[in-house]
Structure formats: structure tokens, C-alpha cells
Design a protein that fits this description.
It is flat, with a radius of gyration of 35 Å. By secondary structure, it is mainly beta. The protein is 6% helix and 39% strand. The strands form eight sheets. The protein has a 16-stranded parallel sheet, covered by helices on one side. A 14-stranded parallel sheet has the order 3-6-9-13-17-21-25-28-31-35-39-43-46-49, with no helix packed on it. The chain has a 13-stranded parallel sheet with strand order 4-7-11-15-19-23-26-29-33-37-41-44-47.
């Protein structure tokens, strides 16, 4: 080995030593760094022991022990099938408490406290997959949340009590999401099922049934809150004021698209009660509720500014006033509702306004309601103007359609027809009283206008709203229509077509069929007719071969074609009718395109 080679080897060894020293130093540094936190699942089993680690294969026996082990956000406490007794407390943000399913895993309280207590949890926690029962507390018999953000989903919360608020759940200054639960047969002084105070929870897609309250809100009670209450079934709750939902103290809930049915109140508001609040009540089914000794079988509002829009308020009963809706010292906006078949012993089978009230009442159907005064609508010291209402087939000994205790209430563009006795204390402008309005099917609750109705194009443009009960723009046609509905015939189109330039070979006969359907929702079958024009191929050219006019029956048309000549034929259907037309469309045929049809 010469000197140069020795030098090169010496330099390489030196680099090796330097690199090795660097790697050792890095390893020491990495070892010194704190370990990265990973989410951990802790398991609970009826066969576990609390001296175990709680990790997979080594479950603990109690839910509370597992919650003590879960100290990091993202940790999960997984509780297996069985019944686990004793109350639990959640203290760590972001921990998920998961059962094996409400039919399999039960958390049973000791009857002294909330079954689950969660306080000061900032975000990310959840409770799912349990039956939660046997709790008894001042607030929140089943679940109590204070200043916490928790998702509560897919549980059955039943058989819990609260001496104050929230038999099933109490959300106090908390941002809860309560979704997909069954909340049944709980009780509280206020809020048998759910109470929310000073918060804005999301309450959606739950079954809230069979709960009771001594004072307010057997199903849901909210105070100083703005909850979103949507898509729930709120049924068969009993007692208190507002047996279905009760809102107090500057609350502004959004109550949308719920079924609120068969709730029975000990006071006002069988279905919904609002006091000093401003709820938005939209798109709900408020059916079969009752306030046997008081007002507002369906909805009651006092000292409130409520929006009541697009609801079906049907077959509710009040022992005093307002079978469907009762408004006292309030300014409700009552629009686009169907108020049908409600009963009140005294005033306002459909709507009752008094003491005084300043409602806006537009585009409603008020029909087949019953009371002693004002079968459809009762006004006592109220100052409304009824605009584009359909008030029909109501019954009362005094003011079958509308009764005004004092003052003269104007009716503008209203249909008043088929009521048991005349109006009392009202004046009318552009309102149809003498002629049959020719509704489509009033016996089944359809008060749309038929094509021959005298109410079409006969209303005042000055007072008419911008849209009707269905949201159809006014006017639709030559003028504004009287009543809650514009006579609306939409633009129609064929739903099936034979696309050009395809043709069919016809030997003996061919049946063409097609459907005329609206371009937007409509209760009407298509009017008008279809003209089928025919061309046939002669040599290399297409020649006209006449046309046929086809009736449209129930939106459908058929045409049986028997040609004088065999060969290739081409058909075009021209639809004429509807609000806008004529327009050319191509229909389908009963065979297969390009194939001989015998």
C-alpha cells in the first residue's frame, strides 16, 4: 500500500466516524423528545376488572374507570354489551363514549344524580349507542351538560327524572347536537324530555315521546335560547304548558319540518307554546294536539313575534279559544298554512287573535274548523287585514267564517264560501261571496281553483302578495286570483322521446305513447293536446304523410297508427297547452327504435 492509498483510507475512516457520531447524537435527541400522543381506545366489559389496563383484550369493569384512563382528546371509551350501573362523569374534551348500541348497552343511574354529568368540555366529545336510564337529579336526570360541546346521538334516554329542568337531557349554556335519539318517558318540572337554557343546541331527527312536565314543555323546554329543532317526531307528551314545545324568555327557536302530534297540555298550547319569544315555526305537521282547559290546541303565542309559515295545522282542540292557533297580545305572521278541522269551545276554531293582537294573515287555507264564535277566525280587539285567504266550510253559530268582537276587519282578495253562518263585523274588498269558487276537491282538503273558477283573474293587484300558498308568483295569468292559490298551469313537457333522426319500420301497426308532465310541481294533469305529424321514406327522401290530433287524458296520450304503406316512418309530437306553448317534442313508441313493429 503506497502513501496515497493510505491517506485516502484514512480520510474515509474519519468521515465514517463523523457520520456515526452524528447518527448517535440524533438517536439520543429523538429519545429525549416527548412521545407523540396517539388516540387510544379503552374497553369496558361486564367480564372486565378495574385493575386491568383497559386496552384491547384487557377490559375494565366500570365506565368511570375507563373515563379516568382516557386523558387525551380523541380517546374512545368503548363499552360492550350489558348493563353498567352507577353514574359517570365526563371531564376530558374530545373523548368519545360509545356503547354497542342502545338495545345492547345500558347505563343505569343510581337514582341520586344524573346518569352522565359533563361540565366544561370544550369540544369533540360524544355520547352514542346507549340506553340511559334510572337517573334522578335536580337538572338533567339522564344527561346534564354545563358549558360543554357534545354530540349526543343514537341513544335511548328513558325513565329519568329531574326535580327542576330536563328529565331526559339538560343543556345549560352548552352547544349540544342531539340527533337520532329516542327520548321517551322522562319527567321534569320543566322540560320532561329536553331543556335548553342560554344556548343554541341542534335538536334533529329524534323521537321525543311520552315525556311529562309539571310546569312547561313536556317534550322540549327552552329559555333564553335559540335552538334549531328540525325533523323530529314530538308526540304523545303530556302535561305542563306547551306539551310538545315550550319557549320562554326571549327565545328564538327555529322549529322546522317536525311532526308535532297528540300532545296534551294542562294549560295553553297543546302542540307549541311561545311566551315573550320570536320563534320561526315553518313546514311542520301540527296534528291532533289539545289544550283541554285552555287556549291554542295547536299553537299558542303570547307577547311574541312569531313566524308561522307553511304548516299543516290539523284536528287540534282547545277547551277555550283557538283550536288551531291562539294569539294573545302578539304580532304573529301567519302565512301559507293549511288550518283544517280544528275545534275550539268558544272562539276561533281555526285562528283566535285577541287582547290585542296585530297579526299578518296571508295566503292561508282556513277550512272545516268549528267553534261557537268565528268558526274559521275570531278577532277580539285585533287589528288585522286578511289578504288572499281561503276561508271555507267552517262552522259556528256566530260568524261561521270570521267573527270580529269589536271593530270592522277588512278582508281583501279572500274566498269566503260554504261556512255555516255569515261573517260578523267584517268588510270585504274583491272577495268572492256569492258564487261557488269551484275548488278542485274540497271534500279531501284540496282548495286549489279549478279551470272554471270565477275567482281567477278577479283580485286586486294592490293588496295581493308576491306569491301564493304554494310559492307560485302572483299573478300567474292575466290577473291576480282571489284566495290562497293562484290558478296555476305550469309549462309542460314530454317525459319520454324518440330522438330524431331515428325512424321506425312499420309493417302493420304501431302504437305511440307519451306522457306530458309539468316542469315543476303541480297538482293538475296536463291540459291541451298533442298533434302527431308523420313523414315516410320514399326512396331516399322523406315525404310528409299527414298528421293526427291526440287528446291528453290524465297527462298521457296514445296513438295507434296503421299505415297504408310499409317502410320507414318518422313521427313528431307537438304539444300545445299549459301556461307556455306550443312547444315541439318527440314522443316514445311502444316498440324498439329502428326495428319492425308488427
Amino acid at each position: 500500500m503506497n502513501a496515497m492509498t493510505a491517506n485516502v483510507r484514512s480520510v474515509g475512516f474519519t468521515r465514517f466516524v463523523a457520520i456515526l457520531t452524528f447518527l448517535v447524537a440524533m438517536c439520543a435527541l429523538i429519545t429525549a423528545l416527548p412521545a407523540t400522543a396517539h388516540a387510544t381506545t379503552y374497553y369496558v366489559s361486564v367480564a372486565g376488572t378495574d385493575t386491568a389496563s383497559g386496552l384491547l383484550g384487557h377490559p375494565v369493569a366500570s365506565v368511570q374507570k375507563a373515563l379516568h384512563l382516557a386523558t387525551s382528546s380523541g380517546d374512545v371509551v368503548s363499552v360492550g354489551p350489558g348493563t353498567f350501573s352507577g353514574d359517570v362523569t365526563m371531564t376530558v374534551s374530545g373523548v368519545s363514549l360509545r356503547g354497542a348500541g342502545a338495545s345492547m348497552t345500558t347505563l343505569r343511574g343510581d337514582g341520586q344524580n344524573s346518569v352522565i354529568d359533563a361540565e366544561n368540555i370544550s369540544s369533540g366529545a360524544s355520547i352514542s349507542g346507549f340506553t340511559i336510564t334510572g337517573g334522578s337529579a335536580v337538572d338533567g336526570g339522564g344527561i346534564y351538560c354545563f358549558q360543554s360541546s357534545i354530540i349526543v346521538t343514537s341513544n335511548t334516554i328513558t325513565g329519568n327524572t329531574a326535580s327542576n329542568e330536563g328529565g331526559g337531557i339538560d343543556a345549560d349554556a352548552s352547544g349540544l347536537t342531539i340527533s337520532g335519539n329516542t327520548i321517551a318517558n322522562n319527567s321534569g318540572y320543566d322540560g320532561g324530555g329536553i331543556t335548553c337554557g342560554f344556548c343554541s343546541p341542534t335538536i334533529t331527527s329524534n323521537s321525543i315521546t311520552g315525556n311529562t312536565a309539571a310546569d312547561d314543555g313536556s317534550g322540549i323546554y327552552c329559555t333564553h335560547s335559540a335552538p334549531s329543532i328540525s325533523g323530529n317526531s314530538i308526540t304523545d307528551n303530556n302535561g305542563g304548558v306547551g306539551a310538545g314545545i315550550s319557549c320562554f324568555d326571549a327565545s328564538s327557536p327555529n322549529i322546522a319540518n317536525n311532526t308535532i302530534a297528540r300532545n296534551i297540555s294542562n294549560g295553553n298550547g297543546g302542540g307549541i307554546y311561545c311566551n315573550t319569544s320570536s320563534p320561526a315555526i315553518t313546514g311542520n305537521l301540527v296534528i291532533g294536539n289539545s289544550a283541554p282547559g285552555d287556549d291554542g290546541g295547536g299553537i299558542f303565542c303570547a307577547y311574541s313575534s312569531s313566524t308561522i309559515d307553511g304548516n299543516t295545522i290539523d284536528n287540534n282542540v282547545a277547551g277555550n279559544d283557538g283550536g288551531g292557533i291562539a294569539s294573545v297580545s302578539s304580532t304573529p305572521t301567519i302565512t301559507r298554512d293549511t288550518i283544517l278541522g280544528n275545534d275550539a269551545l268558544y272562539g276561533g276554531g281555526g285562528i283566535y287573535c285577541a287582547n290585542p293582537s296585530w297579526p299578518t294573515i296571508v295566503n292561508d287555507v282556513v277550512a272545516s274548523n268549528r267553534s261557537t264564535y268565528g268558526g274559521g277566525i275570531y278577532f277580539g280587539a285585533a287589528e288585522p287585514a286578511l289578504v288572499n285567504e281561503t276561508i271555507a266550510d267552517n262552522s259556528a253559530p256566530h260568524g261561521g267564517s270570521v267573527y270580529c268582537l269589536s271593530g270592522v276587519q277588512p278582508l281583501v282578495n279572500c274566498i269566503v264560501w260554504g261556512n255555516s253562518t255569515p261573517m260578523s263585523g267584517c268588510s270585504t274588498t274583491y272577495s268572492e261571496l256569492a258564487s261557488d269558487p269551484l275548488f278542485i276537491a274540497p271534500e279531501s282538503g284540496d282548495y286549489h281553483l279549478s279551470a272554471d273558477s270565477p275567482c281567477i283573474d278577479d283580485a286586486s293587484a294592490t293588496a295581493a302578495p308576491a306569491a301564493d300558498r304554494d310559492g307560485i308568483p302572483r299573478p300567474w295569468g292575466a290577473g291576480f286570483d282571489i284566495g290562497a292559490y293562484e290558478y296555476y298551469v305550469p309549462t309542460y313537457h314530454t317525459s319520454t322521446s324518440l330522438s330524431a333522426p331515428k325512424s321506425v319500420k312499420v309493417r302493420k301497426s304501431l302504437t305511440l305513447s307519451g306522457a306530458i308532465s309539468p316542469s315543476s310541481a303541480s297538482p293538475y294533469a296536463a291540459p291541451g293536446r298533442v298533434t302527431v305529424t308523420m313523414t315516410r321514406k320514399v326512396g331516399r327522401r322523406w315525404r310528409s304523410a299527414g298528421s293526427a290530433k291526440i287528446s291528453v287524458v290524465g297527462g298521457l296520450f296514445t296513438y295507434s297508427f296503421k299505415p297504408r304503406y310499409t317502410g320507414s316512418w318518422h313521427f313528431v309530437a307537438n304539444y300545445s297547452g299549459g301556461a307556455i306553448g306550443p312547444t315541439t317534442y318527440l314522443p316514445s313508441q311502444s316498440g324498439v327504435r329502428g326495428v319492425t313493429v308488427k
